[in-house]
Design a protein that fits this description.
Blueprint (H helix, E strand, L loop, with lengths): L1 H17 L1 E5 L10 E5 L3 E6 H17 L17 H16 L6 E4 L15 H14 L3 E4 L8 E9 L2 E8 L4 E4 L1 H10 L1
Length: 191
Amino acid sequence: MKTLLLLLTGIACSWAATAQTVIKVQPPSEPFRDSIVYQGDNAVLIFDRQHLLDYMITMDTTLRNNKNSNKVFRNIQFARLNNNDMANHFLKAYCFVEDTLNKEISFRTDKMNLLWAEDCGILMPYVEEILPDLLATGNLKIVERGSKIVQPAYKLIFEPINNNNYRVFRMNNGKEIFRESTFCVEQITHR
């Protein structure tokens, strides 16, 4: 019995070790002209505004094709919006990100952002939608808070919750960069 338990523990440990993927940050093809800053507890993520604009253009068509259903998005903040509210929120956010006068787009996870904010806070749910994909492809700059060290690589770990795999990104020192399940797991359990 002891041998079986040790064998199962060994298999579990080997699976846990292979479940990690190291992602190297891709150098941008050209310098960021207009960047967006997302400050988490342990890291500051910086990416090109064009990524968010491209996402919003794509989602504009997708949202229309799905009759402005909030089910298009995974973010928990959209779970209670009806189709009209979803269309209005998206239009307001789309206009904000498209307006070139709005230069300083910055988010902090320790600061409360209202869903219907009149400032860049209205974009927070959309930024949280694209961050896992940007992190998975390495298309952003990661700076460790406190030490200000730019991270050349980081780890991707899959977290199973309710038969769904969510991505957790960690720096090589083990500090968490971003956890996908933080903003979407509740919505998925309510569907």
